[in-house]
Task: inverse folding
């Protein structure tokens, strides 16, 4: 997983708890907001973001785990190790589709209206999953035009994606850069996937470092606030922090976040299993001081998990909270049904060919047409014929829909729909729409899927 | 000529994003390579793309069930599975403290 605001290397709960006060004690190393060289735009972006400044704590953020794939391997991460310590930062156990991700944002926003930051940090590298990441951010911005969008990345795929990120409105970017020397990098990154090849050793690190710095420069030039995360690894990059900070400053990074390596062997990482030790608190303070002459230091980082929700330091467990759970087998007053139809009379269209869906709200005693929803309006750029992003657009077009009726549908979209909680059906292929909807209504009545009005109104 | 995906797969979706043949399918039961679509990337790239990005050793195998990324080739930890099994066991014995996590329904 990517080192997000903390990634795989990072924090046990114990390490995170030390952050509370350090915001003050290290204040002199932090960003000086009175610095005349900072524009007022930058100052407001910093102070309203919980991860960037201690003042930002009154705001809240949500990280949406929509990006599973990664394009590099770090020695402080084990991709398959998710079970023994689930609250390990940078690790999320449950993935969300872009549509579900946005749904989660909307629900959290209802409960915590101060949620003003939507971030994508993993569980892999967001930019190794560009379609899912961009679709999610775009949809979140559509829900709430004031939201800050942020992305955390290892930087390998950043350079080419800067324009797309700017286009969807990403204002805050975090790049994890652990070194600028390929010999050091070779001890941290066993391989990267770049340009259709798996590269290893120094060659891999050199490519990664070059791309990170080029991406950093481009992102700064494009007006993003760029924070750099560095995992402090004793004996590997600790002597190198000052040189690194100098380079970061040169390329225009705004903030530097030095995070202690977490190398608990129970996490199954290379460092953990080979006895690489974690830095002491003093070593972390020393590194921050060494970097501090060049880079403003961030010292209140809680090293969030990629699915963090809420105010820093008081994450909310969505699983424990009924109201945010996806509706399963629950009853409702009415259901939204989408129909793939060309003729507007018969259910006569293949799901994959539908450019729009006709919507109907089915109540216990009536069926109301709700107009049509276009799929294309949910497309990211022109990538809509890419299967992956087309499916994401479809899912967004079907937001809130409980069932889709179509003439035919492929296996893959069927499964994707099911996973997103939408029930596809070809049972009514080539039926008259009204007839099919009545039959469905009848079926649901028999299954007791409609609630008595009185029973569920407080669920809002 | 086709590769396949084993139960070692963690479902990170990376292979699916890079396969030039769109040969990789995923479902609730896991990831698989559609045999008739996979051409081992011949004509597209020098290396099979799925096996070049997959982070998990032994997750992708050839017809003879030889792992394209054999144990130790990606993590540098030859006995990683064993070591992990052991550390998990140790964590269990010492009493897992992260048990507060609700399993999802
Ligand atoms: S070898 Fe190539 S064509 Fe076959 S599944 Fe892997 S990426 Fe796709
Ligand atoms: S890249 Fe490997 S681990 Fe990831 S989904 Fe594909 S086969 Fe599974």
Result:
């Amino acid at each position: 997983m990517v080192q997000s605001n903390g990634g795989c290397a990072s924090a046990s709960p114990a390490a995170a708890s030390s952050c509370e006060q350090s915001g003050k004690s290290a204040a002199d190393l932090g960003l000086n907001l009175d610095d005349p060289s900072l524009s007022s735009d930058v100052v407001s972006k910093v102070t309203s973001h919980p991860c960037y400044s201690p003042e930002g704590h009154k705001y809240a953020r949500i990280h949406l785990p929509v990006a599973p794939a990664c394009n590099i391997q770090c020695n402080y991460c084990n991709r398959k190790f998710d079970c023994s310590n689930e609250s390990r930062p940078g690790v999320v156990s449950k993935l969300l589709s872009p549509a579900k991700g946005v749904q989660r944002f909307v629900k959290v926003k209802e409960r915590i209206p101060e949620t003003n930051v939507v971030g994508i940090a993993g569980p892999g590298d967001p930019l190794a999953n560009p379609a899912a990441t961009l679709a999610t951010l775009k949809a979140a911005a559509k829900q709430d035009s004031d939201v800050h969008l942020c992305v955390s990345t290892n930087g390998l795929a950043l350079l080419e994606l800067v324009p797309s990120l700017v286009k969807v409105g990403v204002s805050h970017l975090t790049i994890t850069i652990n070194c600028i020397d390929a010999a050091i990098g070779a001890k941290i990154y066993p391989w990267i996937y770049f340009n259709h090849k798996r590269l290893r050793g120094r060659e891999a690190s050199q490519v990664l470092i070059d791309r990170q710095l080029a991406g950093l420069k481009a992102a700064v030039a494009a007006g993003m606030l760029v924070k750099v995360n560095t995992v402090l690894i004793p004996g590997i990059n600790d002597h190198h922090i000052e040189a690194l900070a100098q380079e970061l400053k040169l390329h225009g990074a705004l903030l530097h976040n030095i995070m202690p390596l977490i190398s608990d062997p129970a996490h199954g990482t290379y460092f953990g299993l080979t006895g690489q030790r974690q830095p002491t608190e003093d070593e972390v303070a020393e590194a921050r001081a060494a970097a501090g002459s060049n880079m403003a230091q961030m010292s209140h980082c809680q090293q969030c998990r990629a699915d963090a929700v809420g105010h820093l330091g008081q994450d909310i467990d969505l699983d424990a909270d009924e109201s945010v759970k996806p509706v399963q087998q629950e009853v409702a007053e009415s259901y939204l049904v989408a129909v793939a139809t060309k003729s507007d009379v018969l259910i006569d269209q293949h799901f994959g060919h539908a450019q729009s869906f006709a919507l109907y709200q089915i109540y216990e005693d009536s069926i109301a047409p709700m107009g049509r929803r276009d799929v294309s309006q949910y497309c990211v750029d022109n990538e809509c014929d890419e299967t992956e992003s087309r499916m994401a657009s479809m899912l967004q077009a079907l937001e809130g829909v409980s069932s889709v009726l179509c003439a035919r549908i492929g296996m893959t979209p069927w499964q994707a729909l099911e996973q997103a909680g939408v029930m596809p059906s070809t049972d009514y292929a080539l039926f008259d729409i009204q007839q099919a909807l009545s039959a469905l209504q009848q079926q649901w009545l028999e299954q007791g899927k409609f609630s008595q009005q009185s029973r569920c109104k407080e669920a809002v | 000529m086709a590769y396949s995906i084993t139960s070692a797969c963690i479902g990170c979706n990376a292979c699916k994003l890079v396969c030039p043949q769109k040969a990789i399918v995923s479902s609730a039961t896991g990831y698989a390579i559609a045999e008739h679509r996979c051409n081992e990337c011949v004509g597209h790239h020098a290396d099979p793309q799925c096996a070049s990005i997959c982070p998990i050793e032994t997750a992708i195998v050839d017809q003879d069930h030889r792992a394209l990324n054999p144990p130790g080739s990606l993590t540098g930890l030859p006995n990683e599975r064993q070591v992990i099994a052991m550390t998990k066991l140790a964590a269990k014995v010492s009493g897992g403290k992260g048990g507060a996590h609700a399993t999802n329904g």
